[in-house]
Design a protein that fits this description.
five-stranded antiparallel beta sheet; alpha+beta; Heat Shock Protein 90; 5 strands; 143 residues; 32% helix; 3 helices
């Protein structure tokens, strides 16, 4: 990737709007993504940050959440790293189908399918004390 913008936020949800704004501004610098894709990116990153903040709250961690925005001529990638002990996305119970009334009782982890549907590539990596979620959005013709 060409350049990186690093951001650290306290694990509090009122910082989500700031993250969305910084990510959208950074992604628009080189006109790699369309406005619609920048909106998708902002939403997916907001979900990743919300999950990290929830994990921090559940674990009692007060460490910051790191957001690394990587930019180049063919893609924008954002990595959200928490320090909340980590989790394995594939070990989570699957969400019920959208039309299943039981889905309404599923409060957590709805952001994972949303991130996967919006981003071109989503990966999760265990860190020493948490999880790093990486969301990649490619320019048209660069998948």
């Amino acid at each position: 990737m060409g350049r990186t913008i690093d951001l650290e936020i306290p694990p509090r949800s009122h910082y989500l709007a700031l993250v969305r704004r910084v990510v959208a501004c950074a992604a628009s610098l080189d006109h790699v993504l369309s406005d619609r894709r920048i909106d998708d990116l902002s939403l997916a990153v907001s979900e990743a940050c919300a999950n990290a903040i929830d994990a921090h709250r559940s674990s009692g961690s007060s460490e910051t959440v790191q957001v690394a925005i990587e930019l180049d001529a063919s893609a924008v990638a954002v990595t959200v790293t928490d320090h909340a002990g980590g989790f394995t996305p594939d070990a989570l119970d699957p969400l019920p189908a959208a039309e299943d009334p039981g889905r309404l009782r599923h409060e957590r982890w709805r952001g994972l399918p949303l991130m996967r549907s919006l981003a071109d590539i989503v990966t999760f990596r265990a860190t020493a004390d948490g999880t790093a979620a990486r969301l990649e959005f490619h320019a048209p013709g660069h998948n």
